[in-house]
Amino acid sequence: MPSTALVSFDAAAPVAATPRRLHAAWGRVFDLPEGVSRERAAARPALAARPPHDLAGTKPYCLGQLSAGPGAFGMELRFLDDRLLDTLDAWLAWGGVLPIGDGSGRQAPLVPVEAQILEQASWEEMAADDSASTWLVRLLSPTVITSRGRHLDTVPPASLATSLHTRWRQWSPATAPELPGRDALERMLATQDRTHPVSVSLGMPRSDGRGRLSSRRITAREGEMRISGTPGAPATRVFSSLMSLARFTNAGSHAAFGMGALDVEAL
Questions:
Q1: CATH of region 3-120, choose from 3.30.70.1890, 3.40.50.1240, 3.40.50.970, 3.40.50.2000
Q2: If DSSP codes are grouped into helix, strand and coil, which group holds residue 225?
Q3: Spans in the chain with pLDDT lower than 70
Q4: Distance, CA of 88 to CA of 30 (rounded, Å)
Q5: What pLDDT is attached to residue 141?
Q6: At residue 18, what are phi and psi to the nearest 5 degrees?
Q7: What is the model's pLDDT at position 231?
Q8: DSSP string computed for 51-116
Q9: pLDDT attached to residue 214
Q10: Start and end of every CRISPR-associated protein Cas6 C-terminal domain (predicted)?
Q11: Tally of helices (H runs) and strands (E runs) in the chain
């Protein structure tokens, strides 16, 4: 069952918390330990839901909204598999600490002080949530869409739909709605685009295996969009269900770098 949780931390010093660094830190909590295969983990309930670090596809967790204040830091976590809530609970119970690198080899340890589940919805409930026709979509972290190997300079609603549908089919194929053709989505959906470009570093160690990508900077989008569709139209109804899923996952490319976190409000 897709879920969201909020974890509050005590921070002794300011945290250089980029989405990529935070995602990497949580990977040490939620990813399978190095050397443990998915086949071996499948027989262990405590490991079965944890993805391999190099999973080909979307991982079942991502970052949502972040907040920071004097001596405090808060993170929303989004899960497509609620078994990872048990992993989070176990990590908290044995006194887990989240070390956040600052890019220079130093680490700022974040000590959790409170955690709570914010929201849960079944795949069936999201599939049935098909009545909205207008949405305000806020890009909480830099978001980029890739088409045929090229980063687009916009975030087309049809591409958001495709990205979210891919995640749905990966984690609950039996409940995934049928995605309309791209032409139908583009004809049906209108957008007021209030996003702006931002430059994002994808800097990762060369050993990360991404080759040329490890030292690249790309242009992504931040801001918000208002998306509208024809009420009751089949394409609008499917898009409504996919926007419901956006509460629990990210969209677009480079999600492993913490990109593509959305906040969607049906209007």
A1: 3.30.70.1890
A2: strand
A3: 13-17, 19, 56, 101-107, 202-216, 256
A4: 8
A5: 86
A6: -80, 155
A7: 93
A8: PPTT-SS--SEEEEEEEEETTEEEEEEEESSTHHHHHHHHHHHTT--EEEE-SSS-EEEEEEEEEE
A9: 46
A10: 137-261
A11: 7, 11
Q: Which residues, including other chains, have CB under 8 Å from residue 264's CB and lie 6 or more apart?
A: 135, 136, 137, 138, 243, 244, 246, 247
Q: Which two tokens stand for residue 6?
A: 């909020």
CA distance 16 to 11: 11
* 16 three-state secondary structure: coil
Q: Residue 158 half-sphere exposure, CB side, CA atoms within 13 Å?
A: 14
**Half-sphere CA count of 148, side-chain side, radius 13 A:** 0
Model pLDDT, residue 209 = 46
Burial (Cβ within 10 Å: 0-12, 13-18, ≥19) of residue 176: buried
| Residue 117, C-beta contacts closer than 8 angstroms, at least 6 positions apart | 3, 4, 5, 85
Token pair 């999600």 in the structure block, residue: 255
CA atoms within 13 A on the CB side of 257: 24
Sign for the CA dihedral angle at 181, 241, 121, 63 comes to: positive
pLDDT of residue 244: 95
CA 5 to chain centroid, in Å, comes to 13
123-266 is classed CATH 3.30.530.20: no
Residues in the chain, total: 267
DSSP 114: E
